[in-house]
Amino acid sequence: MALADCCLSCLGVSVRTSRELACGLTTGHLVEPLHQCQDKNFTESLTTKFLSTSYSRVPHVTYKLRCKESFSHQLAAEGDRKKMDTKTRVFVILILACWSSPSRGEGVGLKLNFYSKSCPKAEEIVKQEVVKLYNEHGNTAVSWVRNLFHDCMVESCDASLLLETAGTILSEQSVDRSFGMRNFKYVNTIKEALERACPATVSCADIVALSAREGVVMLGGPFIPMKTGRRDSKQSHADVTDKSIPNHNDSMSVVLSRFKSIGIDAERTVALLGAHSVGRVHCVNLVGRLYPTVDPTFDPEYAKYVLNRCPSPNPDPEAVLYSRNDRETPMIIDNMYYKNLLNHKGLLKVDQQLLSYPATAQFVKLMAADNSYFYSQFAKAMLLMSENNPLTGNEGEIRRDCRFVNAAA
Question: In whole angstroms, what is the distance from residue 103 CA to residue 356 CA?
Fold first, then answer.
């Protein structure tokens, strides 16, 4: 599709990866370049001067631009609404991000506490259910984090991942990249609790986001304030899942390119991969580093451990044959993952490549040295990913059962 609409990304604001967003502009702030424009004609940043005594905070100002329209004309129109004062200059750097995806609806977007009136206890209910499930099945917390990644990396954060194969729908859960994913049935446990409190109100897409947030906390990671207001897809994206989600054997340049396509840079890609500090990997995904010869980048003693866990070059995909990502703190999201990489104990090829690839190696070292820095970047990356191209307003639907689209009325 031709490039058409563009959006502005504002510093300190979680950016929707659609073509329009509301920004709260703050005096003197520099806007952070979160995305590279897909059209080289629009990659340079523009400096616009606002002259105002009352422009120190303008919440919910929406700038909707067209790529071939005049920026100065659009922004001047907004500036004319404010009392002008030539002695006060407010400088804002605007980074233009152009998108080729279909334009999103112009209704209500994502915001914090979206359900404050329609379902005031929604987020608390999700939290309670996540805690309850964690106490019964500890690995569910890891599943919630992985669900967010697999849902949001493919087209949109729209709960398409949760759809089961039915009628003309082929489930994303059936494709290669979804190998090893589990605990989908417990998403509906959360949904049922929400339906009892607030029928047909909270989307499955928001359950994916909120359960991931709470899952990170249960795994010892940071609390991440997440906006809500997503709606659910009526279709699966199984046909593009494998090319949207990086493979564990892909080159680092391919991995970075995939993340860059949804606005996540190298630093935050390194942080997101820190989620590999929890959970485990099936031997199906490890034998390529073990047979016929052991990958020389493996620490020799660590290689012995992995070989012991995966004794055959042809493991049964249905068998319980796993190695832990992190043997020191296997159920805690922390920077031990990066310390292991420095000691050549990365389990997957994609993990160990982070240390050998120039654009990522520096961040591995920084995160290994500072857990707080890792948490900060991890939280920012999770937010960016959780807001990738959501359905909002009147788009999509609110599924009654996360496994199936609603029956036609």
Answer: 39
* pLDDT value for 409: 57
Q: Judge contact between 231 and 114, C-beta under 8 A.
A: no
Question: How far is the CA of 19 from the CAs of 231, 312, 364, in angstroms?
Answer: 17, 49, 33
By percentage, how much of the chain surpasses pLDDT 90?
Answer: 70
Exposed e or buried b for every residue in 258-295, given b needs 16+ CB within 10 A? bbeebbbbbbbbbbbbbbbbbbbbbbbbbbebbeeeee
Give strand pairing partners of 148: none
Integer-rounded Cα Rg, in Å, for the chain is 22
Quote the pTM value.
0.75
**Annotated catalytic residue within 35, 150, 237, 282:** 150
Quickly state the pLDDT bin for 185 (edges 50, 70, 90): very high
User: Rounded to 5 degrees, what are φ and ψ at 59?
Assistant: -75, 145
Q: What does the pLDDT read at residue 17?
A: 32
> Cα torsion at 202, 204, 209, 213 (round to 10°)?
70
Query: Could you confirm whether 150 is annotated as catalytic?
Result: yes
Residue 109's pLDDT is what?
86
Least confident of 10-19, 170-179, 328-337: 10-19
Write out the H or E segment, with its range, that includes residue 89: strand 89-98
Instruction: Please report the sign of the dihedral spanned by the C-alpha atoms of residue 257, residue 262, residue 264, residue 265.
Output: positive
* Rounded Cα–Cα distance for residues 240 and 189 (Å): 28
